[in-house]
TrEMBL record, chain A:
Name of the protein in question: alanine transaminase
An example molecular function term from Gene Ontology annotations: L-alanine:2-oxoglutarate aminotransferase activity
GO biological process, alphabetically ordered: L-alanine catabolic process
Enzyme class, broadest EC rank: transferase
UniProtKB/TrEMBL annotation, chain B:
Gene name linked to the record: GPT
Origin species: Myripristis murdjan
Gene Ontology CC: cytoplasm
CDD domains: AAT_like
Function (record text): Catalyzes the reversible transamination between alanine and 2-oxoglutarate to form pyruvate and glutamate.
Pathway in which this enzyme or protein is active: Amino-acid degradation; L-alanine degradation via transaminase pathway; pyruvate from L-alanine: step 1/1
Pfam families reported for this sequence: Aminotran_1_2 (PF00155)
Catalyzed reactions: L-alanine + 2-oxoglutarate = pyruvate + L-glutamate
Name of the protein described by the UniProt record: alanine transaminase
Lineage: Eukaryota, Metazoa, Chordata, Craniata, Vertebrata
Length: 473, 521
C-alpha cells in the first residue's frame, strides 16, 4: 500500500504513447548525466579523442558557454548588495536601474516576498512591452501574472483546466515534436496528451487538417479542452505565419478549445523572411467576435531570447478573455507561493533594456550564428541525415535516416535507435546532443536535437556521422 | 444582445458571489458581449463550473481578502484620501525584510559575486566570500547562475546541506541523494503531498494537520483533493501537541478516509510552540504505530526564544530512538532560507531531506520534481551559504555572528514584549511566543459583534480584523484563516516590525480592542 500514491502517479504517466517514450528514455541512460561523467573524467586527465566535452543537448545558452549580459548581472549584483551603488565603478544606468528596482521591493530588499501575481510596477512594464510589441494592442495588468519561469504559470493554468473529476478526462492537444516538460505537466495533472503531428517535410508546419485528425482521434478517449501551441517551435525552429496563426485561432474558436501559447522563443527569430507575430496581436486584429471570445494564455520567459537566464526563473503569462470568476480563483492559486524576486527583476531587464544614449547601450546580445545556415547545407549534403530550415527557436532538429543495421544494433542493446546514435556520438566524440525521441516524433522516424552552435560541433558531428553510416551499412 | 463596454476603472465581474467588500482585484477583460439577463451569449470554454473543482476550495488567508483590502487602502492613502492613520502596518505575512530587517552582509556579498563574477577582482570583498562564490560558480553549468541546474538541485550544494544536517544532528549521517533542493519549503511540501495523495472514496488519502496550521497545508490539500484530518493543539497548555488528540483524530478519520500522512510544524506556525524532545519521541512512536508518513516542517528551527526551549530535529530524535524506528519510519523534513535570521523570502531557497523513502517512490519523486525544471539557482546558492556560514577562522565571521545574534535577539525581545502587552488587555489572552515569528492570541468577542459578523456572512474574527484595518491601519490575519476550536477567535500578528513600531502597534490594538468590546457590548 505504500506504493499506492506512487502507483497512482505512475498510472498517470502511461496515458499516452509519446509520454511513455519520454519516460522510458529518461529512465534508460540519461545522456546528460553521462556527459557530466565524461567531463569529470576529462578533468581528471582521462585520454579521449577530444580534450573538451561539448554539450549542446539543451537550449541553455550559459551551459553551452555563452556569457551572461553584463548589464543584467551588474544590476542584479547591486540589487543584492546595494553598497556597490556607492562606487563609480559601475555605469550610471546600472546604478539607477537597481535603485528603481529596489524601490519596487518591500523594505527595499530583493529578499522580501513579491506581492501575489507579481510586483505591480514590473507588471506595468510588462503591459507596456506587450503593447509596444503588438503595435498598440492594449494589455491590462490584471491579466498578467509573473511567475518563477513560464513553466510554473503553465502548470498552474493547466491545473485549472484539467478537471479530473469528470469523465472522460480532459484532453490537451499538444504538438509532436514537443517540449517534454509541457507534456509531462499535462500527464502529472491527470490530463491526456493528444498529439498532433507537425509536418516535417514542410518545415514542421502546423497543418489544420492534422489538428482535425487529432481531435477526431480523441473521440471516446478524452474530452479535448486545450490546444497547446509552441511558437516559435520547440524543438522544431518553425515560426508560424500570420495566416497559420489565424487558422489555429479559428479552429480553437470553432472547436471550443482554450489556447495555451508558449512564445518563449519570440526573440529568437533569425531567418530574414520570418517574423514573429504574437497570437494576441493576431487575435486582436481579427476583430470581434473572435477577439472578444477566444480564451487564451500566452507565456514568455527570461530563459531564452537574448538574455538566456534559465536558472534565474523568471516569466509571465497573459490571459485573454478569461471568465472573471475563474481569474479570481487563479489569483488565489498564484498567491499561495511567491515567485522569486530575482526572476521578476530579470524580466524587467529583459523587456526594458538600455536605450541608445544609455551608458550600457548597446547590449552585446546572445546572437545566433548565421553559420548555422551553412551547417544545414553541410548536413543535407551527407547521406543519412537531412534537416529542415531553422527559422527560429533554440534548436536544430535534423532527421536521421538510419540503416537497418543500426536499428537492429540499437534493439540489441535495448536503446531507442536515435538514443543509440547519440550515445555513440557522445562516447566517440565527446559531443552531447539530444535524442529526438525525448520530444516525440512520428513512429519509425529518428532525430537528433542540438542547440545551434559552432563549427567545432559541425566538425565532430560530420566526421562521426560519416563513420557511423559506413559502420552500419 | 446588450453590449457592455468595460470601463477600466469601474468594471466589475458580473457574478453576484462577492461576499466581502473587496475580493480579488477587479479583472479586466477585452470588452465582452453579454446577453439579456446577464448571461454571456456565447458560453466560455473555461468556467467555474467546468474548471478543476478542487481549485474553488483553495484559500490562502495570509494573502487573502484582508490583505487585498489593505493594498487598496494603501493606494487610497497614496492618492491623498484622509484616514485615521498615515500608513498601513502589514503584520500579516512573515516577511522580515519588508518590515525593515537588514539582510546579512556575507550572504549578499556572495550573491553579488555569483551574479557578476568580475567583482572577484574587487578587493573590497573578503576572501571567504570570494571562495564561496567561486565554489558555487564551479558547480553551475557554464559557471553561471543563469544556467538550469539538475532538477534535484546542484550536487555540491546538496552535499553541503548533508554536512550541515550531520553537524546539526550530532553526527547522524545524511545522504546527499536524499536531499532535494526546492523553491522555498512550500515547493517541497506541495510536492510531497502531491506524491502521497491518491485513492478513491473511503481509500482517499487523509493528511493530518495541526489546528491552528499554516494555510499552505489546507490549500495544498484542497487543490489535490486530499482529505484534511484536523488534530487540535492545546491552547491551555501553550499549544502543546497531545498524542491522545492525534489518536482521536486518526481513529475518527479511518471511518471515511485512509490516513497516511502526519504533518508537524516545529516551531509552530502560527502558534510558535517549540516541541519538547519527549513530545517528538511520542509523535514518532505514534507515526510508527499508525503507519503514517511524517512531514516535519522545521523552517523556524533557528527561531527559538523562550527559556528552557530548544529545537530538536525530528531526524535526530528518530535516529536516537534506535534502529527499530530509524530504519522504518518514513519521513521528510523541510527547511528554508525565508525565516530564521536570514529572512530571505524572495530568493526561494529551501530543501527537504527524505528518510526511508521506498526506492520506487523516490524514482517517482525525482520525475515529479523535473516537471518544474529546477529551483531558482540564486536560492540554491543562498541556501549553500546558510548551511555553510563563515567559520571562526574566516574574515567574515565576526560581522556575521554579530548580525545574526542581533536579529535573533531582537526577535526574542519582541516576542517577550508582545506577550507582555497583549496579556494586559482584558479580553486578549496570549500564550508565550516560544519560537517562530508570530503571535496567535485568543480574543474574546462580545455576542453582539459575533451576531453582526454572521449577518454579514463573515467569520467573527474576520469582522474584527477588517474593522481594525479600517480604523487603525493594521493588517492582521484572522484566526479563521488558520483554523481554531469552534467558538474561539484569534488573530495572527507577526512580531517583525521594528521594536518602536511594534510598540505603537501593540498599543493601537489594545486601544482598538477596548473600543470594540465597548461598541458591541
Amino acid at each position: 500500500d505504500r506504493h499506492g500514491a506512487a502507483a497512482g502517479l505512475t498510472q498517470g504517466w502511461h496515458l499516452s504513447h509519446t509520454t511513455r517514450q519520454n519516460i522510458r528514455n529518461s529512465e534508460l541512460a540519461p545522456l546528460g548525466m553521462r556527459a557530466w561523467q565524461i567531463k569529470d573524467e576529462l578533468r581528471q586527465g582521462a585520454r579521449k579523442p577530444y580534450k573538451e566535452l561539448i554539450d549542446v543537448s539543451s537550449a541553455d545558452p550559459h551551459r553551452a558557454g555563452v556569457k551572461p549580459l553584463s548589464f543584467v548581472r551588474q544590476v542584479l549584483a547591486v540589487c543584492y548588495y546595494p553598497q556597490l551603488a556607492k562606487s563609480d565603478k559601475l555605469p550610471a544606468d546600472v546604478r539607477q536601474r537597481a535603485q528603481r528596482l529596489l524601490g519596487t521591493c518591500a523594505g527595499g530588499s530583493a529578499g522580501s516576498y513579491c506581492p501575489a501575481g507579481g510586483i505591480p510596477e514590473i507588471i506595468d512594464i510588462v503591459c507596456e512591452f506587450i503593447s509596444r510589441r503588438d503595435d498598440g494592442v492594449p494589455s491590462y495588468p490584471e491579466n498578467i501574472f509573473i511567475t518563477s519561469g513560464a513553466q510554473r504559470a503553465f502548470v498552474e493554468i493547466l491545473n485549472i483546466l484539467v478537471n479530473t473529476l469528470r469523465s472522460p478526462i480532459t484532453g490537451v492537444l499538444t504538438p509532436c515534436p514537443s517540449y517534454p516538460p509541457g507534456n509531462m505537466a499535462v500527464v502529472m495533472l491527470g490530463g491526456a496528451v493528444v498529439p498532433y503531428y507537425l509536418d516535417e517535410e514542410q518545415g514542421w508546419e502546423l497543418k489544420i487538417d492534422e489538428l482535425h485528425r487529432a481531435l477526431e482521434s480523441a473521440k471516446g478517449v478524452c474530452d479535448p479542452t486545450v490546444l497547446y501551441v509552441i511558437n516559435p517551435g520547440n524543438p522544431t525552429g518553425h515560426v508560424q505565419s500570420r495566416k497559420s496563426i489565424e487558422e489555429v485561432i479559428r479552429f480553437a474558436s470553432e472547436k471550443r478549445l482554450f489556447l495555451m501559447v508558449d512564445e518563449v522563443y519570440q526573440d529568437s527569430v533569425f531567418e530574414q523572411e520570418s517574423r514573429f507575430v504574437s497570437y494576441k496581436k493576431v487575435l486582436a486584429e481579427m476583430g470581434p467576435p473572435l477577439s472578444h471570445t477566444v480564451e487564451m494564455a500566452s507565456f514568455h520567459s527570461v530563459s531564452k531570447g537574448f538574455i538566456g537566464e534559465c536558472g534565474l526563473r523568471g516569466g509571465y503569462v497573459e490571459l485573454v478573455n478569461v471568465d472573471p470568476s475563474v481569474m479570481r480563483n487563479l489569483y488565489t492559486l498564484m498567491s499561495r507561493d511567491a515567485s522569486t524576486t530575482t526572476g521578476q527583476l530579470a524580466l524587467d531587464l529583459m523587456i526594458n533594456p538600455p536605450q541608445p544614449g544609455d551608458p550600457s547601450y548597446p547590449l552585446t546580445a546572445i546572437t545566433l550564428h548565421i553559420s548555422d545556415l551553412r551547417v544545414l547545407e553541410v548536413l543535407n549534403s551527407l547521406p543519412g541525415i537531412s534537416c529542415q530550415p531553422v527559422k527560429g527557436g533554440g534548436y536544430a532538429l535534423p532527421r536521421l535516416h538510419l540503416p537497418p543495421g543500426a536499428i537492429q544494433k540499437a534493439k540489441e542493446v535495448g536503446m531507442l535507435p536515435d538514443y543509440f546514435y547519440c550515445s555513440r556520438l557522445l562516447e566517440e566524440t565527446e559531443l552531447c546532443v539530444g535524442a529526438g525521441s525525448e520530444n516525440g516524433q512520428r513512429e519509425s522516424t529518428y532525430h537528433i536535437r542540438y542547440r545551434q552552435s559552432s563549427d567545432e560541433v559541425l566538425r565532430r558531428l560530420t566526421s562521426f556521422h560519416i563513420q557511423f553510416m559506413k559502420d552500419f551499412s | 444582445h446588450i453590449i457592455w463596454i468595460c470601463d477600466l476603472k469601474t468594471c466589475r465581474p458580473n457574478n453576484a458571489d462577492l461576499v466581502l467588500p473587496s475580493r480579488a482585484p477587479r479583472k479586466h477583460v477585452l470588452p465582452f458581449i453579454e446577453g439579456m439577463n446577464g448571461v454571456p451569449h456565447r458560453g466560455k470554454v473555461l468556467t467555474v463550473d467546468n474548471m478543476n473543482p478542487n481549485v474553488k476550495r483553495v484559500e490562502y488567508a495570509v494573502r487573502g481578502p484582508i490583505v487585498q483590502r489593505a493594498v487598496q487602502i494603501e493606494k487610497e492613502l497614496k492618492e491623498g484620501v484622509k484616514k485615521p492613520f498615515t500608513e498601513v502596518i502589514k503584520a500579516n505575512i512573515g516577511d522580515a525584510h519588508a518590515m525593515g530587517q537588514k539582510p546579512i552582509t556575507f550572504l549578499r556579498q556572495v550573491l553579488a559575486l555569483c551574479s557578476y563574477p568580475e567583482l572577484l577582482n574587487d578587493n573590497k570583498f573578503p576572501e571567504d566570500a570570494k571562495n564561496r562564490a567561486q565554489r558555487i560558480l564551479q558547480a553551475c553549468g557554464g559557471h553561471s547562475i543563469g544556467a538550469y541546474s539538475a532538477s534535484q538541485g546542484i550536487e555540491c550544494i546538496r552535499q553541503d546541506v548533508s554536512r550541515y544536517i550531520e553537524k546539526r544532528d550530532g553526527g547522524i549521517p545524511s545522504n546527499p541523494d536524499n536531499i532535494f533542493l526546492s523553491a522555498g519549503a512550500s515547493d517541497a511540501i506541495t510536492t510531497m503531498l502531491k506524491l502521497q495523495v491518491s485513492g478513491e472514496g473511503r481509500n482517499r488519502t487523509g493528511v493530518m494537520i495541526p489546528i491552528p496550521q499554516y494555510p499552505l497545508y489546507s490549500a495544498a490539500l484542497a487543490d489535490l483533493g486530499g482529505i484534511q484530518i484536523n488534530y487540535y493543539l492545546d491552547e491551555d497548555r501553550c499549544w502543546a501537541l497531545d498524542v491522545t488528540e492525534l489518536r482521536r483524530a486518526v481513529t475518527a478519520a479511518r471511518q471515511h478516509c485512509n490516513p497516511r500522512v502526519l504533518c508537524i510544524i516545529n516551531p509552530g506556525n502560527p502558534t510558535g510552540q517549540v516541541q519538547s524532545r519527549q513530545c517528538i519521541e511520542d509523535v514518532i512512536r505514534f507515526a510508527k504505530e499508525e503507519h503514517l508518513f511524517l512531514m516535519a516542517d522545521e523552517v523556524y528551527q533557528d527561531n527559538v526564544y523562550a527559556e528552557g526551549c530548544k529545537f530538536h530535529s525530528f531526524k535526530k530524535v528518530l535516529f536516537e530512538m534506535g534502529p527499530e524506528y530509524s530504519s522504518t519510519v518514513e519521513m521528510a523534513s523541510f527547511h528554508s532560507t525565508s525565516k530564521c535570521y536570514m529572512g530571505e523570502c524572495g530568493f526561494r531557497g529551501g530543501y527537504m531531506e527524505v528518510i526511508n523513502l521506498d526506492p520506487e517512490v523516490k524514482a517517482q519523486l525525482i520525475k515529479l520534481v523535473s516537471v518544474r525544471l529546477c529551483p531558482p539557482v540564486t536560492g540554491q546558492a543562498l541556501l549553500d551559504l546558510v548551511v555553510n556560514p563563515p567559520q571562526p577562522d574566516e574574515p567574515s565571521y565576526t560581522t556575521f555572528i554579530k548580525e545574526r545574534t542581533a536579529v535573533l535577539a531582537a526577535l526574542a525581545e519582541k516576542a517577550r514584549l508582545t506577550e507582555e502587552v497583549f496579556n494586559t488587555v482584558p479580553g486578549i489572552r496570549c500564550n508565550p511566543v516560544q519560537g517562530a515569528m508570530y503571535t496567535f492570541p485568543c480574543i474574546t468577542l462580545p455576542q453582539k459583534a459575533i451576531s453582526q459578523a454572521k449577518e454579514k456572512g463573515l467569520a467573527p474574527d474576520m469582522f474584527y480584523c477588517m474593522k481594525l484595518l479600517e480604523e487603525m491601519g493594521i493588517c492582521l490575519v484572522p484566526g479563521s484563516g488558520f483554523g481554531q476550536r469552534e467558538g474561539t477567535h484569534h488573530f495572527r500578528m507577526t512580531i517583525l516590525p521594528p521594536t518602536e513600531k511594534l510598540k505603537i502597534m501593540l498599543d493601537k490594538i489594545r486601544e482598538f480592542h477596548q473600543k470594540f468590546t465597548q461598541e458591541f457590548s
